[in-house]
Amino acid sequence: MIEPKPAIEPQPSNAKGSGTAKKRRFGGTEAQIRSALKFYKTMAYLTGGMLLLLCLELIVRYGFGQYLLAGGTNAVTGQPFGFGFADAEPLGVLGAVNISVGVLIVHGWMYVVYLISNFRLWSLMRWPFSKLILLALGGVVPFLSFIVEKKFHAEVEAELAANPQASKRY
């Protein structure tokens, strides 16, 4: 049976205090980690942008009682309605496509893909579970995905540069 190896190799007992660094182990090759990092970065920006759009949509909906609609007919005048904001209650436009609901749905599915990118990067880097939680929070707290992405991108680059021998797995 193959024994799993820890993320950081333990130092020999006689090497303590000699100043040698612990050998870092990754869950994949450098190419796999860079690919996961690129995927994570892309999803962080897309999900963060959609989250900001969602926050704006919720402010308009609950603050001003408006939906973003496309198409349909104005309920009061009977004129065709193109694209824009209309009253939510009572319904101001009939037969329109509700773009506001579309923003909710798209952000929800993008967040699922964002979580997959988080898990992929986290597992390849062999980080503690707390970092996965912080990565996941980036998709639900406005502006946090941009901050967390910058921090973790720099951390991954630094770890790869500091441990070039650790990524050779095969």
**Overall strand count:** 5
> What is the arithmetic mean of pLDDT?
83
- Major sheet details: 3 strands, antiparallel
> With helices defined by DSSP (H or I, 4 residues minimum), what is the helix count?
4
Mass-distribution shape? rod-shaped
**Into which percent range does the helicity of residues fall?**
40-55%
Sheet/helix structural class: mainly alpha
Describe the structure.
- The chain is mostly helical and 170 residues long.
- The chain has four helices and five strands.
- 21% of the residues are buried.
- Mean pLDDT is 83; it is low at 12-19.
Short description:
With 170 residues, this protein is mainly alpha-helical. It has helices spanning 30-64, 99-125, 129-137, 144-162; strands at 66-70, 73-74, 83-87, 93-94, 97-98.
SSE order and pairing:
Elements: H1 30-64, E1 66-70, E2 73-74, E3 83-87, E4 93-94, E5 97-98, H2 99-125, H3 129-137, H4 144-162
Helix pairs in contact: 1-2, 1-4, 2-3
Give structural attributes.
170 residues, mainly alpha, three-stranded antiparallel beta sheet, two-stranded antiparallel ribbon, 4 helices
